[in-house]
Automatic annotation (TrEMBL), chain B:
A family per Pfam: PaaA_PaaC
One of the record's GO cellular component terms: cytosol
Protein known as: Phenylacetate-CoA oxygenase subunit PaaI
PANTHER family registered for this protein in UniProt: 1,2-PHENYLACETYL-COA EPOXIDASE, SUBUNIT C, PHENYLACETIC ACID DEGRADATION PROTEIN PAA
InterPro entries named in the record: Aromatic_CoA_ox/epox, Ferritin-like, Ferritin-like_SF, PaaA_PaaC, PaaC
Superkingdom in the source lineage: Bacteria
One Gene Ontology term from the biological process aspect of the record: phenylacetate catabolic process
Organism: Streptomyces radicis
Gene3D superfamilies: 1.20.1260.10
Length: 193, 243
């Protein structure tokens, strides 16, 4: 049996001081907070906990700290950086040999991004994914009139609902590029999945 | 990865993982060739993203079978089991778009089915499924725009569909480990979806028979050797190199 710390309820644990005892081993909750506070390598305004990619932190065989991470996209190149950043952050708390594994099941969804994470994305000018939405809205071109998107993606800068898809793929696999028709600013949108 | 180092000897799903992993790897390489060559910057970024998604799928699938790098970089052409459709040269942009339409539509239908199964492929298929939906969306949009566009874009899209169509039959060849998938039903759904898009794009749905042979059996066009020559050159020159 291994002690497991779920990561769902600890995103509010921000003040991990760990200075109340010189040799006290950090608790799993503290380590979970440390790993969860690692910024996303591609979107450093959000943490791994905000993003919902940290699945579990536990003590495995011989007390070794094991971390489970899920990629946003199967081929997300940031995963290897995340792994090293988590190991470095835990090493900073005296955990030198943490093992970070990648799990695919259940698949990550944009609904795993916390409310805090959505707010931080919007504050950074990145439109957060629409909650509960899934996959692309198939756009009809050709002779048929373009189908209106069922739910608007509001501009993260001015809040206007009138925004246009410029490209389904942008600087990161998880983003689309849009433009606001009110303030004319282009912006990134985290694609729902 | 949580995947085993080596699949249990001769597990049927390992054959399927290798075939689908090779499909993703080789198509990823063809799409990556557009970097620096795409018609517009947004499209270059889009094609690179598609390539990246497919490379991720390839890595996960090949890791089920063995060492991903050894499988990608040390096999000869006859040991690859991807469909020949994905190894054909990228051609013009219309060729790339029509191939994406064919492959993404097929992958989405297949992954949908595999995601509900019990094999080790299921979690990979489930995680990749949302990506394939975006790939299909991208291909559908461009097929409609090019097919129902200018006389030039229409002619190129039609030529691409006719050139690629004889290779699409291989997508539905039986593969050991995919026994749970009704390939006949998959082909009917695929044909309906692709035909619908081509028709809306004013591109006639090609007829005609499939080409003899199959990439699933290790039979490939000479294009594969040239592709591998480039893809494997760095590994040959620096066998133990890492980033």
């Amino acid at each position: 049996m291994s002690e497991v710390s779920g990561v769902g309820g600890v995103s509010g644990v921000g003040g991990v001081s760990g200075v109340d005892g010189a040799s006290r081993a950090p608790s799993l909750d503290e380590l979970t907070a440390v790993a969860g506070a690692v910024p996303d390598p591609e979107l450093p305004v959000v943490t791994l906990a905000d993003l919902g990619v940290l699945r579990a932190v536990r003590r495995g065989a011989e007390g070794r700290v094991e971390v489970e991470l899920t990629p946003t996209y199967v081929g997300c190149p940031a995963v290897e950086v995340m792994r090293e950043d988590i190991r470095a952050a835990l090493a900073g708390r005296g955990v030198a040999d943490a093992v970070v594994t990648t799990v695919l099941s259940p698949p990550w969804s944009t609904d795993d991004i916390s409310a805090d994470g959505r707010r931080k994305l919007a504050d950074a000018g990145i439109a957060p994914p629409r909650a509960g939405a899934r996959g692309p809205v198939f756009v009809e071109l050709g002779r048929a009139a373009p189908a209106p998107e069922s739910r608007p993606v509001p501009c993260p800068r001015c809040g206007a609902d009138e925004t246009t898809l410029l490209s389904r793929f942008a600087g990161a696999a998880c983003m689309a590029l849009r433009r606001c028709e009110a303030c004319r600013e282009p912006f990134h949108h985290v694609k729902e999945r | 990865m949580s995947a085993p180092e080596h699949a249990p000897g001769g597990a049927p799903w390992a054959t399927a993982a290798l075939a689908l992993g090779d499909d993703a790897l080789i198509l990823s390489h063809r799409l990556a060739e557009w970097a620096g060559n795409a018609p517009v910057l947004e499209e270059e970024v889009a094609l690179a993203n598609l390539a990246l998604d497919l490379l991720g799928q390839a890595r996960a699938l090949l890791s089920l079978v063995g060492d991903e790098d050894a499988l990608a970089f040390t096999r000869g052409p006859e040991a690859f089991t991807h469909v020949r459709l994905v190894e054909l040269p990228r051609g013009d942009f219309a060729h790339t778009v029509v191939r994406q339409l064919c492959v993404a539509t097929w992958q989405e239908l297949l992954y949908e089915r595999l995601a509900t199964g019990a094999s080790p492929l299921a979690p990979i298929a489930a995680a990749a499924l949302p990506e394939t939906a975006y790939h299909r969306d991208h291909a559908v949009t461009w097929t409609l725009r090019l097919g129902d566009g200018t006389a030039e874009s229409h002619a190129r899209t039609r030529a691409a569909a006719e050139a690629l169509w004889p290779y699409t039959g291989e997508l539905f060849d039986p593969v050991e480990g995919l026994d749970e998938v009704d390939l006949g039903a998959l082909e009917r759904r695929w044909r309906a979806r692709v035909s619908d898009v081509l028709t809306r794009a004013t591109v006639p749905v090609p007829g005609g028979a499939r080409l003899p042979g199959s990439g699933r059996a290790g039979e490939h066009t000479p294009h594969l050797a040239a592709l591998l020559d480039e893809m494997q050159s760095l590994h040959r020159a620096h066998p133990a190199a890492s980033w």
